[in-house]
Each structure stands twice: as C-alpha cells, then as structure tokens.
Design goal:
Layout lengths: L1 E5 L6 H11 L4 E4 L6 H6 L6 E3 L13 E6 L2 E6 L11 H9 L4 E3 L7 E5 L2 E5 L12 E8 L2 E8 L1
Parallel strand pairs: 1-2, 2-3, 5-6, 6-8
Antiparallel strand pairs: 1-9, 4-5, 7-8, 9-10
Length: about 160
Amino acid sequence: MKIAVLSDTHGNRTMMKCAVEKILHCDVVIHLGDNDRDVEYLKKYINVPFYVVKGNCDFGSKEPSELFQHIGGKKVLMTHGHKYNVKYSLMSLMYRGLENEVDIILFGHTHVPVKVYNQNVLIMNPGSVGNPRMGPATIGIIEIIDDVIYPSIVEI
C-alpha cells in the first residue's frame, strides 16, 4: 500500500502538476486541507480513493475537520492541525491520536514537513505543495509493507 499525503496546496496549479508526477502510482491520496477544492483538479489525473479534510482557509467546505480511517491495515487520524495549535506544540494532537489508538497521525497547517515517531505512532506533516515556508515544496509518501510503516518526505 502506497499513500500520498498532500497539504496546503493553496490553488498552486503549477506545483500540483509537479506533485501529480510523484503520486501517480499511489493507491490512496490524502489531502489535509487549505484549498480542499484542489482535490477536484487532482482527480482529473489520479483515479484512486481520496480522503480529504478541510483547513482553516477552506471557508464553506463540507469536508470534515478531522477523519479517522483504516488504510493499509493501519488506523490513521487526518486533520489540518489548526484546531490543535500545531504551530506551537504537537502534544494536543498526539493525545488525540493516543486516545483513539491510531498508528498514524497526519496534519498540515505549518507548511513545514515533519516526520517523527512518538510512542510507536507516526506523526507526519507533508509540508506544503503550494506555499512552503522552510525549504522546497514537499509531499509525504507512506508505504505500508508487511505491516511496517515506511514514511518519507519527497521534494517536488
């Protein structure tokens, strides 16, 4: 199972085209908000299941603020992160994941990639496709092979 994780695309079609090249062979795509409408653009090029949550800039969106889903045999928490104050600490987000017994926590909002393990839980922010803050535009790729999680941050 190969999962593409994108966040904070902010309508940047040029960078989304670059991202498409990196995620064409993924089994699932997750968009963590801040222009969740960009998913419709991505679906023109990628025909796989999409999971989408809304971000703080997704005014009027009907997408949920957070989503729990089993993917590749792992329980995943998906959220944009702004409601958990992720710019200051990951503690609230980590507690949310632990209380729901997740294997993977995915968030965006900071526009800065993060990939850490805490108490055997992967916490990942793929960075930003549309407006990176500290370095190049990035996405996350998670491969689950034989029940083992292999996360990576990929420059686009």
